[in-house]
Amino acid sequence: MDDLTGKKPAPPALDPDGDALFLDFDGCLVDIAPRPDAVVIPESLPQVLARLSAKLGGALAVVSGRSLHELERFLLGYDGLMIGSHGAEARGMTPPLEESPDDLAALQTEMDHFAQQQGLLFEKKSHGGALHFRADPSRQPEVEAFTETLAERFPAFAIQPAKMAVELRPDGFSKDGALVLLTQLPQFSGRMPVYAGDDTTDEPALAWAEAHGGFGIKIGDGKSAARYHLAEPSDIRDWLAAAVEE
Ligand SMILES: O=P(O)(O)OC[C@H]1O[C@H](O[C@H]2O[C@H](CO)[C@@H](O)[C@H](O)[C@H]2O)[C@H](O)[C@@H](O)[C@@H]1O
After folding, report:
1. Which of 52, 58, 77, 136 gets the highest tally of CB atoms within 10 A of its CB?
2. pLDDT for residue 99
């Protein structure tokens, strides 16, 4: 991993006959917004994903930390593969996690209570939750300390750092773990994995793509295992649109 992101080249054109494509959602397909519910979905995005998935013979998946039902709502019109909740949920293949850990409700109650007391934003998720401090980044240390105690008390959950947020997700699930499962599906056979993402949540998956004959595309600045770089979500959307039109 290095921090030469800005000096890394733009990715080559997608090979529809040989590549498989995995796309992160927040900060990659869509721009970061002040709140999770404020993201703006470009009107053409679901159709671009649908057409590209068809072109790749179905070897395309959206891979996100978001709850699956939210992704489905945001990307209405794209019916292809989706991974949600940092690898715990799936559409189009057997869900990696069949049932939420027993103490999900208790965990979410405590996170919600903390958020209300501290004036933070709590995002309730299918298999966990996130405490967002984008509105006041100075709150990061308190959020980190609180989520550490929660992870000790609720061992079925693990800490997942995110952009201006700390999440608790089911322990043992990850985006790279989801790639292992996805690439066992027949439509991925013989294809090279290409993963695009922007965040620490994506790094293991970017490294996985690099280690399995494909490549990673880091969106935005920062250290990354990816060999290619694009500055912002509009750049990856342009790259996808070009791949559709080729
Ligand atoms: O895996 P991703 O698709 O990148 O999702 C990661 C988390 O993204 C969301 O939070 C982030 O984006 C928000 C909207 O732009 C922003 O307000 C927040 O500060 C970011 O952390 C989402 O809310 C989480 O559930 C995802 O896990």
Report:
1. 52
2. 87
Max distance between CA atoms of the chain, in angstroms, equals 53
CA distances from 171 to 5, 138, 191 (A): 30, 27, 29
Q: What is the CATH number of the domain that holds 226?
A: 3.40.50.1000
User: How much distance in Å is there from the Cα of 63 to the middle of ligand 1?
Assistant: 12
Q: Is the CB of 89 under 6 A from ligand 1?
A: no
Flag whether the pTM goes above 0.90: yes
Backbone angles phi, psi at 21, to 5 degrees: -125, 130
**Same domain? 225 vs 185:** yes
Q: What is the mean pLDDT of each run of 10 residues along the chain (246 residues)?
A: 74 97 98 98 98 98 98 98 98 93 96 97 97 97 98 97 97 97 98 97 97 98 96 98 94
Q: Are residues 200 and 153 part of one domain? A: no
Q: Are residues 203 and 221 in the same domain?
A: yes
- Alpha-carbon distance 121 to 132, whole Å? 5
Q: Which of 113, 144, 170 is the last residue of a domain?
A: 170
Shortest CA distance to 157 belongs to which of 203, 36, 5, 166?
166
- The question of whether 24 is a catalytic residue gets the answer yes
**Ligand 1 atom nearest to CA at 164:** 19
How many domains, in total, are found in the chain?
2
- Of the residues 145, 170, 195, the one at which a domain ends: 170
